[in-house]
Design a protein that fits this description.
cell membrane; 10 helices; globular; mainly alpha; TM_pro_TauE-like; single chain
C-alpha cells in the first residue's frame, strides 16, 4: 500500500535534487508524519536512497573537473565517522528533537533559496585539511541523524566560506556517497534498515533526479529556486506545527 506513496515521494525529492540540488530534506518528515514510518527507519531508508544520487552526482561533477579532490578527500574522511555515529544516534535520540531539527533544516534551506543563496565572502576562506575534516564530520553526523542530504547543510556553508557555487555543489555530491553508504551500513548492522522502503525511494529518487535535471534546462533558475523554496519552507512549517500541536496541546 505504501509503494505508490514512497515512489511519488522519491520522485518529488529526486526532481528537486535534479533541478536545484536540494530536496532530500522532505523525505523523512513526509515518511514519519504522512506514512507513519518510525523516524529511525525513515532516516535509514532515505540514506539508502542517497547512495544512487550521490554516485551519479560524484561521477557527473568529477568528470566536469569542478571538484577539488584534496578538499573532497578531507571532507569525506571526516564524514565517515560522523555518518556512523549519526546512524547510531538516530535510534537513541528524542524523535521530537530530531524532527524539529529537520523542520529547521527544511525551512532554512527554503529561506536561503528564496534569498538568493548564502552570502559569499569577498575573499575565500582557506579551508585546511583539519577544518575540512571537522566540517565533514559535522555534516556526516547531522545528515545521518536527520536523514537529510549533505547538500542541504554543506552547500550554504561552503558558499559562505567563499567556495564557488559549482565547486560547492560538486563537493556536496562527493560527500554524499560515503555519508549515505556508511550510514546505510550502520543502520543495517543495527537492524533499523528496511531495504524495501529504501529500494522504492531509490527508484523514485533516480527517476526524479533525471527528470529534474532535464527540466532544469528549460525553466529559469529563479523559477526553480522559488518552487523548491516554497516546498521546503512549507514542509518545515508543517512539521513544526504538527509537532507543537501534538506535543503541547
Amino acid at each position: 500500500m505504501l509503494t505508490p506513496a514512497l515512489l511519488g515521494l522519491g520522485l518529488l525529492a529526486g526532481f528537486m535534487i535534479g533541478c536545484v540540488g536540494v530536496g532530500g530534506v522532505i523525505l523523512v518528515p513526509v515518511m514519519t508524519l504522512g506514512c507513519g514510518i518510525p523516524i529511525g527507519t525513515a532516516a535509514a531508508a532515505a540514506m539508502m536512497g542517497y547512495i544512487a544520487t550521490g554516485a551519479s552526482g560524484t561521477l557527473l561533477f568529477g568528470r566536469s573537473g569542478a571538484v577539488d579532490r584534496k578538499l573532497s578527500l578531507a571532507l569525506c574522511i571526516g564524514a565517515a565517522p560522523g555518518a556512523l555515529v549519526g546512524a547510531w544516534a538516530v535510534q537513541k535520540a528524542n524523535p521530537i528533537v530530531v524532527q524539529m531539527l529537520i523542520a529547521a533544516l527544511a525551512a532554512g534551506a527554503g529561506l536561503n533559496s528564496l534569498s538568493g543563496g548564502a552570502r559569499v565572502r569577498a575573499r575565500p576562506f582557506a579551508l585546511g585539511a583539519t577544518c575540512a575534516g571537522l566540517l565533514g564530520a559535522a555534516v556526516g553526523l547531522i545528515s545521518a541523524l536527520t536523514g537529510t542530504g549533505g547538500p542541504v547543510i554543506l552547500v550554504p556553508l561552503l558558499m559562505w566560506l567563499g567556495v564557488p557555487v559549482l565547486a560547492a555543489v560538486g563537493l556536496a555530491q562527493t560527500i554524499q556517497l560515503p555519508v549515505a553508504g556508511l550510514a546505510t551500513a550502520g543502520a543495517y548492522l543495527i537492524g533499523s534498515l528496511d531495504t524495501q522502503i529504501g529500494a522504492q525511494l531509490t527508484v523514485g529518487l533516480v527517476a526524479g533526479s533525471i527528470a529534474g535535471a532535464r527540466i532544469a534546462h528549460s525553466v529559469t533558475e529563479k523559477t526553480l529556486h522559488t518552487i523548491a523554496a516554497v516546498i521546503l519552507v512549507t514542509t518545515g512549517t508543517i512539521v513544526a506545527i504538527r509537532l507543537v500541536s501534538v506535543n503541547f496541546s
